[in-house]
Amino acid sequence: MGRLLDTVQAAVEEIDFHSQFWPPHPPALACHTCNAAFRLSLHSRTYSNLTTFSISEATIDSELLHGFWEQHQATLRRLQMQYSLLTTGSWVHVFQVLARTPGLRHLRLAGLYQVDDGGQGRRRDRPEADWQRDTMELVDEQKIAVWLEAMASGLTLYWRQREGSEWIVHFEELPGISGVRYCNVGSFWPLG
Question: How far is CA 23 from CA 19, 20, 28, 78, 122, in A?
Fold first, then answer.
């Protein structure tokens, strides 16, 4: 299945599943925490990105992603990650993976782009420069507090797009799905 590296330190954990699950791709999952933030890259045939102290996303074939979740959910939960997804056609957007470490005060999140239904990974909403800028934005402590409270109460975040390229995030309960789905740092509002 690959190797599992655990430093058993409060703020530093590393997990690395190699390409056995998604041959011939790079490691299917590579996670790293560095004292105050968590970063993740899910590699796919269309797109992958990993920026220090951020959460990256990719588009993954839905069949493979569901199989991956079933295979590794125990380990993911051990790392306190909340993992959710939304299907668009035959493709899946990986919205959000959250890891909490003791004493965490700030968390950086990556912006999310839409792909066309054909799964070619073509961004149609936002230019690369905007996405990179969003990746480096900082979430303030108040937003994190609201986020963690919502997760603890079993609510789920999801995104909606409105005019232009602005993203809106709401709280909503979704049957069969728990945890936090996605937070855009520029728009974090409770539903209602």
Answer: 5, 6, 9, 25, 23
142-190 pLDDT, tens digit per residue, is 444 444 444 444 333 333 333 333 333 333 333 333 333 333 333 222 2
Q: What angle do CA 136, 141, 144 make, to 5 degrees?
A: 85
Question: Quick one: which of 99, 19, 4 has its CA closest to 53?
Answer: 99
pLDDT of 62-110, one tens digit each?
Answer: 344 444 445 544 444 433 333 333 222 222 222 233 333 222 222 223 2
Q: What is the largest CA-CA distance in the chain?
A: 46
Phi and psi at residue 151, to the nearest 5°: -65, -40
**Sign for the pseudo-dihedral over CA of 114, 117, 122, 127:** negative
Beta strands per DSSP E along the chain = 14-17, 29-33, 38-42, 59-61, 82-88, 91-98, 107-108, 138-139, 156-161, 167-172
Q: Which residues contact 115 (CB under 8 A, 6 or more apart)?
A: 46, 59, 88, 91, 93, 121, 122, 123, 124
The DSSP result for 92-135, as a single string, is EEEEEEE---TT---EE--------TT------SS-HHHHHHHH
SS3 46: coil
Q: Are 181 and 158 in contact (CB under 8 A)?
A: yes
Which helix (H) or strand (E) segment holds residue 50: the answer is none
